[in-house]
Amino acid sequence: MKIPLNPPLVKGDLNKTFLSVVIPAYNESKRIRDSLKGIINYLEHQKYIWEIIIVNDGSSDSTADVIRNLMDTYPVKLLTNETNRGKGFSVRKGMLNSQGEYVLFSDADLSTPIDELSKMLKIMAEGYDLVIGSRGLKESKILIRQPFYREFMGKVFNRIVRLLTVRGINDTQCGFKLFRGDIAKRIFNKQRLDGFSFDVEILYIAKKCRFSIKEIPVRWTNSPDSKVRALKNSPGMFFDLIKINFYNITGNYNNV
């Protein structure tokens, strides 16, 4: 059954936020200003109320100062972790503090351009609970590829994910995911993983709860400053897949 999106809301009605954009940021001072201005420029042309939530994950550079300079002019909120807690921890914090009827999680580097959101919202109107961007579909457009070793290890990881945890999804790790706001809070309240594997966990929870998920092709550009270190992070990410199954067996994902 098609569920129509709410009609455009009058900007300024702070009690009816249509869209929240959650962005985790760790030492992003070099690019967060351009990323935020790109997002803001896009959202200012939309006919709905929006907010941007930046979660500063214990950055040691001037990330927080850059964000504060924009807060007086735009509906940008800054949440701060006193120490570096991890991407999963930061996204969860942003999601649970969001007000939007729809909540988008986006990487700070905008590897997936923000204008892909309009396509996602149209698909969400068909009744889906989650719409996730994917680099793994035939129609996906990879404009700048990752180095071979990272791409290879990513494919290996995705195959293991499909074998052990989340079946039927080609790319769990693309940092561009749209949720219904109420569904996001139910899922992220149960999330346990704080690192890069959190994407797998939230999709696992969503599938376990039979929430409807649509994976769609997006444009994607590799960022040379990615915080993921394939060789360093891979062992922990593989171990996290075992943790997800353990958490499920021990009932951590019940009563979502």
Helical percentage: 25-40%
Global structural class: alpha/beta
Q: How many individual domains?
A: 1
| CATH homologous superfamily classification | Spore Coat Polysaccharide Biosynthesis Protein SpsA, Chain A
Outline: globular
Give the second-level CATH assignment, the architecture.
Alpha-Beta Complex
Instruction: Using the coordinates shown, work out and report the CATH topology.
Output: Spore Coat Polysaccharide Biosynthesis Protein SpsA, Chain A
Radius of gyration: 17 Å
Précis, in short:
The chain is an alpha/beta fold. It has one domain: Spore Coat Polysaccharide Biosynthesis Protein SpsA, Chain A (Alpha-Beta Complex), CATH 3.90.550.10.
Identify the notable features of this structure and list them briefly.
256 residues; 19% strand; two-stranded parallel sheet; alpha/beta; globular; Spore Coat Polysaccharide Biosynthesis Protein SpsA, Chain A; 8 helices; seven-stranded mixed β-sheet
